[in-house]
Amino acid sequence: MSIAQKEILDLNRFDAASVQGLPPALAGQVARRQASFGASSVLFFEQPIDMVRAEGAYLYDDAGRRYLDVYNNVPSVGHCHPRVVEAIARQAGQLNIHTRYLNQVVDAYAEDLLSRFPAPLSNVVMTCTGSESNDLAMRIARIVTGAEGFIVTEAAYHGNTALVTEISPSSLRKRKPAPFVAVVPAPQARDGLDVAEGFAASVENAIAELQARGIGTAALIVDTIFSSDGVFADPPGFLQMAAALVHRAGGLLIADEVQPGFGRTGGGLWGFERHGITPDIVTMGKPMGNGFPMGGVVTRPDFLKQFCEETGYFNTFGGNPVAAAAGHAVLKVLDEEGLIDRSRAVGDYFRRSLQALMAEHAEIGAVRGAGLFIGLDFIAPATGHPDTAIATWVINQLRQKGILIGAAGKYGATLKIRPPLCFSKADVDVFAGALADCLKAR
Ligand SMILES: Cc1ncc(COP(=O)(O)O)c(C=O)c1O
């Protein structure tokens, strides 16, 4: 099948060459952005949006138009949640400094966060981003195992540092992954094997490959909902076989919870819980501060000790009191508003609605997911192959209807559905109705 593969950051990207086709005022704003950001500028949609404010599951543009947010998982407990905003403002007015002084706000947060992990995961290192968390996790894994190699999925994205870019095949434009990386397909049933067996067989080959290259396996790193690969959630538990193989080979399991963490999958706080496994290292980011930039690495004390004996680690802004206040407010809102249960209930309703649409529209090839993380594949009805053009068209049609959505997957043909967890069943109906209207109008 010769279908162009798409880089995750390129999906649904505004084409800089089309700036002249925009209304004059918008063209001016886009040109202004391009003048400062240069080639690194990425804007969403054929017609970019100037966003001004947000609340709950809605954003508002400069003309006051409202958009339903079905895309953004960072403001996870709801855009500008008053409790989180208040915690940030209060702490910013009191003290904001690194973690080299004692501070009760910081310690209370670390304890509460760690109480939500299984033994023996009882130490945390605070960072500012998911990328920093994965970079640190990789360094810990290398020191603990003495091995150099990493196993990743083929459309994975784990972040932007030099090291982490090497284990993010979806970011590599003009070259192959580094020699210390072995790439495996996204978990899917194949060749008479079920999902667990198929994924384990790929991981077993990757372990042998890294062994043959003389570098060994430091870790298998997985986003536990496989979001950039196109959302692969089921059946729960399918990661167990692969994790056992990696451990047998002396490697670690790193669970990247940057996307699924903090309740999104509706099956607990962490995506790995659905699989009945305990990772060796867990990395966090995005929803951790509901928009306040923060990340973290949770691991075993003996692993962290080994790492710290080898090398110093200091992160100026990681775990500062304002970050801790934001992070703690997020945990409390998740508890008090029952957002994990809500994610499960609204997510189940969402998948059922989309499956009903699938029965009517041959362009929808599959609906997958857990909680409020759902992937919807677009296919060409005649061939059954992934259809990136339909996905791109639908995304831009929905934007015109006031709905924000994006794509994922190797071919960019999967709608990546991950709204704030305050999303309601009425919001699901709005989205499903608008998607049905788009498909009927094709
Ligand atoms: C699974 C995953 N891990 C890590 C990262 C990197 O996080 P950040 O952009 O905060 O550095 C991302 C970002 O999209 C991600 O999706």
UniProtKB/TrEMBL annotation:
4Fe-4S as UniProt keyword: no
Protein name: 4-aminobutyrate aminotransferase
Molecular function terms, GO-annotated: pyridoxal phosphate binding; transaminase activity
Superkingdom of this protein's organism: Bacteria
Matches recorded under PROSITE patterns: AA_TRANSFER_CLASS_3
Keywords: Aminotransferase, Pyridoxal phosphate, Transferase
Cofactor(s) required for function per UniProt: pyridoxal 5'-phosphate
Family, similarity comment: Belongs to the class-III pyridoxal-phosphate-dependent aminotransferase family.
